[in-house]
Amino acid sequence: MLTPNFTLLELLRSDSTDRTASNFKCITSREVLNLEVLCNNILEPARKRFNVPFYVNSGYRSPYSNKQVGGVANSLHTKGCAVDFTVSDKAMLYDIFNYIKDNHTFDELILYKDRNYKPRFIHVAYVALSTEHRMMSKTVIR
Questions:
Q1: Radius of gyration, alpha carbons of the chain
Q2: Tell me, which fold does domain 8-141 have in CATH?
């Protein structure tokens, strides 16, 4: 367990067996620590505030996994500094997004919406060793 509500397994899992295996093979202790810091500083407090399960779509990605999903070369997912997640009640994503934006330090916070402008998932990144967090937040239609 990284925190009471988040496990390393769920932050390494992928929808493909070969990507999951690659994630397990490639992750280092530094990236595990980065995931733990992200969970402790943002995900766990938000999870406790809203008292609903968060479903991780993507956490750590090996370079292979990142390439397979079309991630950018310098993705913070490959450093264990980013997580994409959703909840059962997608409308609640607006409140979670605003809670994180208003109450936490972060580097990236993105609310992804579908073409009908309905929320799909949140991407959040926190660079553990950063002394100046970017605090960039936006909404993306995709």
A1: 14
A2: Muramoyl-pentapeptide Carboxypeptidase; domain 2 (3.30.1380)
